[in-house]
């Protein structure tokens, strides 16, 4: 009777190793990085022009955020934010891909991929 099941341990080992290889190849992604993302540096003139551009965009509402407004903080996933106005890409191309929301009399610049605050500009 012992000899009948002697092949089972090697078979189980083979199955487990195959399952491990399959799990690695399913494309599972690593958890999001907690490293802070910071927007590229811009000049004071660029900042002023961005501020004017956002003011002229006439955002429908001002967000009420229950998080500390600090660079690197993650904003809630259900927050309604806006793409930067087209003029911003002309003023500072490095800011063109970011989104923003106006909160606490500040322009909060958000990375749309990580949902992290990358810059805070006064209104």
List keywords for this structure.
alpha+beta, single chain, 123 residues, 30% helix, 4 strands, Nuclear Transport Factor 2, Chain: A, globular
Q: In a few lines, what is going on in this structure?
A:
By secondary structure, the protein is α+β, with helices and mostly antiparallel strands. The chain contains 3 helices and 4 strands.
CATH C-level label of the domain at 44-122: Alpha Beta
Percent of sequence in beta strands? 15-25%
Between the first and last Cα atoms, what is the distance in angstroms? 82 Å
- Under the CATH scheme, the architecture of the domain at 44-122 is Roll
The largest beta-sheet arranges its strands as 1-2-3-4
Helix/strand-derived class?
alpha+beta
Counting DSSP H or I runs of 4 or more residues, the number of helices is 3
Mean pLDDT: 75
Radius of gyration: 25 Å
Helix/strand order, N-terminal first = HHEHEEE
CATH-defined fold name of the domain at 44-122: Nuclear Transport Factor 2, Chain: A
Outline the low-pLDDT stretches.
11-36
- How many E strands? 4
Percent range of helical residues: 25-40%
How would a crystallographer describe the biggest sheet?
4 strands, antiparallel
Shape: globular
């Amino acid at each position: 009777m012992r000899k009948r099941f002697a092949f089972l341990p090697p078979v189980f080992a083979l199955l487990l190793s195959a399952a491990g290889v399959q799990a690695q190849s399913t494309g599972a992604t690593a958890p999001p990085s907690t490293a802070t993302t910071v927007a590229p540096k811009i000049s004071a003139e660029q900042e002023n022009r961005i501020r004017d551009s956002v003011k002229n965009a006439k955002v429908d509402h001002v967000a009420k955020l229950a998080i500390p407004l600090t660079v690197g903080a993650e904003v809630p996933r259900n927050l309604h934010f806006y793409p930067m106005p087209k003029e911003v890409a002309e003023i500072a191309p490095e800011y063109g891909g970011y989104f923003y929301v106006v909160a606490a009399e500040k322009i909060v610049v958000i990375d749309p991929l990580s949902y992290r605050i990358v810059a805070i500009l006064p209104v």
